[in-house]
Structures are given as structure tokens and as C-alpha cells.
Amino acid sequence: MFRAPLRLLAPAALLALAACAPAPIYKVAPTTLTVPPQQVAETPERYSNAEVLWGGRIIKVDNYPDHSEIEVLAYPLDRSQRPLGAQPAGGRFLVVMPGYVERYDYPEGHFMTLVGRLNGTRAGKVGDHDYVFPLVQVGQSHVWTPEELQSRKPDVHFGIGIGVIKGWR
């Protein structure tokens, strides 16, 4: 008697929870690479001029006369394309942006996601160690606010009782 409603309730509950996950911020082509920058740095010729979807933590911003570069420590992305900072890092890369980039808009320690095109590599240093940085010509970028990163968890609550909604007027 109760089996039929339960069979219908389980898929409906899963669908409701899936609907709570934010959508990806960028629509990307099926050919867009998601391999880690570390892998690209090892064999850059294999990935020449490919489009990438990468994200990570901003390490620093350097401004030059005609462009800016943002050094990023890469992390895997979730389904909403937010960097997963608790996962192991996947190398570093340099984001090349035209013109001047305000450091306040790309603060060190914040997370970002971008879509761009690989444009070779550059030798550099991380501390005292030699390092090869993949270069990404930015197409689009997004710096995540702490509030956006906290919204990782579905905002769905089940229970019995009285609830209070903060900020409700």
C-alpha cells in the first residue's frame, strides 16, 4: 500500500536536491581541457592553443606596461566550476590579461575560475625551485566571493518546528 508512494518520493527527492546545486558559470565546448596545469607543463606541445577551464587560488598579480599576469595555484573544480581548495593542488599557471588589472579585484588568497586559451609556457621559480608555468590567455574569469563558495551546500532543510529566516522582511 505504501510502496508505490515511496517509489515516487525517492526520485522526486533526488531531483529536488539536484536542482539546488548551482549551475556552471561558463558554457564550454566538449573539447575544452580540464587536465591539471601540471600535466600541461610536462608536455606543452601536446596541448598547444587548446581551450582550458581551470580554477584555483590567486597567488599574486603582476602588472606590466601592456598586460597583467595572475599566478594561480590550480585546484580541481566542482560541477558548478568552483575550485575545491581542500583537494590536492594540480600545479600553477599564469593567467595573461590585457591591460592593467586592479589587485583589489583579484585579491591574493581568493579563488577564481576562468576559461582561456593556452599560449605556451614560461620558465620561472616557485621559491628556490625552477618551475614551468602554462600561460593562459584569459577569455572569461570569475573571482569567487566567500559567500559564493559557502553556497556549495544545498540550502535545503528538513525538520519539524519553528524556523527563523535571517534577513527576511
From TrEMBL:
- Keyword Lipoprotein appears in the UniProt entry: yes
Which N-terminal stretch is annotated as signal sequence?
1-23
Instruction: Write down any Gene Ontology CC term.
Output: outer membrane
Q: What UniProt keywords are attached to this protein's entry?
A: Lipoprotein, Signal
Domain of life per record: Bacteria
Entry keyword annotation includes Transcription:
no
Q: Which PANTHER family has this protein been placed in?
A: OUTER MEMBRANE PROTEIN SLP
Q: What is the designated name of this protein?
A: Starvation-inducible outer membrane lipoprotein
Question: Species name for this entry?
Answer: Mizugakiibacter sediminis
